[in-house]
Amino acid sequence: MKQRSFQIYIVTATLIGIGTGYVLKVFDLLFIMRLIHTLSEILESIFLFITPWIIILYMTSGIMNIGKKSGRILWNAIWVSLLSSALAGAISFCAASFILPGILGPVPESAINKGILSTFFEFETLPTADIVTSIIGAILLGLGLSLSKKTKIHDLIEDFRSVIDALINKYFERYIIIFVFGNTASITYEVYGSQLLINFSLIFVLIIILQLFMLFLQYNFLYGYLGMLPHNIVKSMLRAYFTGFGTQSSSVTVPITTQCVKQLGVRKWVAEALIPLCANIHKVGDIVAIVVSCVGLMFVYGNVPEFNQILLFLIVMTFVNVISPGIPGGGGMAALSVTDTMLGFVHFQKILMISLFKIQDSFGTATNVVSDIFVVSIVDNLSQENQVKEPKESSEEEVMEGESEEK
């Protein structure tokens, strides 16, 4: 499917989903909404089943082709991701502390609208591995294969990856469009008329503005550091943005993000090794949403956050986001363990935080996805400066010569 056509389909599916959810809520057509929600949940289960395979095969293939210097490239990706996330958290805290205290009002518990949608039946496919296990397994396997001579295992990995590529090219994108429609319809149905959305409209707008501001900073840094034109980056990454917006999953969007990053000149093997990793450790959008939501809720209930408290919170949240799964709502759920122990959030505040996170999740995931070009481009440039060259595939003549020498 062509990039422009896919973007149009994603936007159309999103708008139709919003309209459908609105109409079904107004006329109280719960049966039809549950039917759409059931289809969306089935597709999400299928996507989550195949996601570990995408991560394992893409990362393993990319890392093993990088060669013996793959460890340096991975470490570069990790520290760049951590610095980017920490900067996003610091900017979000400063902006939220300056803007929110004078404009937020109290939110009653009755404003929470949750659990109104359920599926007609349970359809849950157990993934072959969780996201963190997939990443660790892919890194270890890729590093091991990069240090060994080419064997049948190398060919097997590439063959399996070609199978996944074929599935993605033939089915993945069209089913994502259906999933986007069902997912946006479900969200619209749940939040329509909710006092939470009305009372927290200002904090929602601030989150979106800060997410876009972080992308503005990152893209302009790439222009100053690497000469990459911001409007070219935006044009190439739109496809990934709309896919992340609709799926609310960085991991599910990995194939689309990888294609977009390659179009911007990042070497193929670097993109395929790092995009699956960045989908799970580089979450600028999530950091912004969590920090702004937590700071806002603290001001709403009269708790003025202290600098030392927030500084430690930012440090911990940066690392928590590294291990949170790249699935819908994963960043918000991972933050719960931090908010109650470090910020003293009670059950009601945690529900509000998750509700806010859910409302903005499409924007947050989209920001996560398109900000990965920042990390991958920098690491790709550093690897070229360190003379990490693209691996060359052995030609048939070289293979024949090698076999004759062995004989």
Question: Could you explain the architecture of this structure?
Answer:
This protein is mostly helical and 407 residues long. It has one domain (3-388): Proton glutamate symport protein. It contains 15 helices and no strands. The protein is globular. Residues 393-407 have low confidence and may be disordered. GO terms for molecular function: neutral L-amino acid:sodium symporter activity. It is a multi-pass membrane protein. One of its GO terms (biological process) is serine transport. This is Na+/H+-dicarboxylate symporter.
Quick structural overview:
The chain is mainly alpha-helical. The protein has helices at 3-26, 30-66, 70-99, 131-146, 152-191, 195-199, 201-226, 230-247, 254-263, 268-281, 284-300, 307-323, 330-342, 347-385, 396-406. It is built from 15 helices and no strands.
